Amino acid sequence: MRLFLLIFLASFVYGQNTDTSPITIEKRFAPPRGFWRVQVQANSFEVYLRRLPLMPEGSPVLDYRGRVFKKATDSTVAAVVDMDIRGRKLEQCMDILLRFYSGYLMETGQRDKILFPLPDGLRLSWKDWSDGFRPQFKGTHFSLRKTSAPDDSPHNFKKYLNTIYNASGSQTFFHFYAPVPLQDMRIGDFITRKQRRGHAVLIVDMVENAQGDKQIMVGQGDTPACSFYILRNTNGSPWFPVDIASGFPALPIRKKMYWNGLRRFGK
């Protein structure tokens, strides 16, 4: 009887928290008072980003070598996304955003939509690459030529992405993706800058209130390549008010981002 009671008590105590699913952006961060999360379609890129798994609170940002890039006490870091970055030195600011978007398309069976611009604007698709076509640069433009056997393996997909990472950057996406009006901004949009020292940040969540005011959650990778992390506002919140009258979001980063760099994948 005593043994039964001990087993019952143990199961009661340890059974209180049976949810072993990862802590995600959506789970950890509640909307500010008076705001609610904007509605999104099921299985969308917006949902994918809200469900990015997070490292335990107090985790530092690590670079691709496993070294501390930003300490856990850094005031600009609200959370760190739980992802493998070791050895991925090419996955810097814009590149890590491509990793998210292409990963989403792969997971949702939309592989034919995976295509990204090269520096001259030519779109290199995963379908062309997996069929054996490779970009050839001559003069000032790229062209595609079939030089390899078909291969749709994960290893070849990584080679495809690395080719995009090496060839293209924030400048490419600024010039060859259409601008997104600020009033039409949504989760999954990104901001890139055209200045010589380029950069890109990603909108991973959005909330609004009854007056139509919006606040966004913004994350970024960096140089050298490091884990993707969520930015923290100076007031301690991960939410940033969207000021339409201002030309830029007030992000706690050195490279100033401007609303005229708002872009959307696939556009």
Description of the molecule:
With 267 residues, the protein is of the alpha+beta class. The protein has one domain. It has helices at residues 2-14, 25-28, 45-50, 93-107, 126-130, 154-167, 170-176; strands spanning 36-37, 61-62, 68-70, 77-80, 115-117, 123-125, 133-138, 141-146, 190-192, 200-208, 214-220, 229-231, 239-241, 262-263. Strands 1, 4, 9, 10, 11, 12, 13 and 14 form an eight-stranded antiparallel beta sheet that branches. A two-stranded antiparallel ribbon has the order 2-3. The longest helix has 15 residues, at 93-107. It starts with a helix and ends with a strand. Mean pLDDT is 91; it is low at 1-17.
Write the layout of secondary structure elements.
Layout: H1 2-14, H2 25-28, E1 36-37, H3 45-50, E2 61-62, E3 68-70, E4 77-80, H4 93-107, E5 115-117, E6 123-125, H5 126-130, E7 133-138, E8 141-146, H6 154-167, H7 170-176, E9 190-192, E10 200-208, E11 214-220, E12 229-231, E13 239-241, E14 262-263
Antiparallel strand pairs: 1-10, 2-3, 4-12, 5-6, 7-8, 9-10, 9-14, 10-11, 11-12, 11-13
Distance between the termini: 68 Å
Spans of at least 5 consecutive residues whose pLDDT stays below 50 are 1-17
Total number of helical segments?
7
Q: Report the count of strand segments.
A: 14
Beta percentage is: 15-25%
The H/E string reads HHEHEEEHEEHEEHHEEEEEE
> How many domain regions?
1
Radius of gyration, in Å, reads: 21 Å
Helix content: 10-25%
- The biggest beta sheet, please? 8 strands, antiparallel
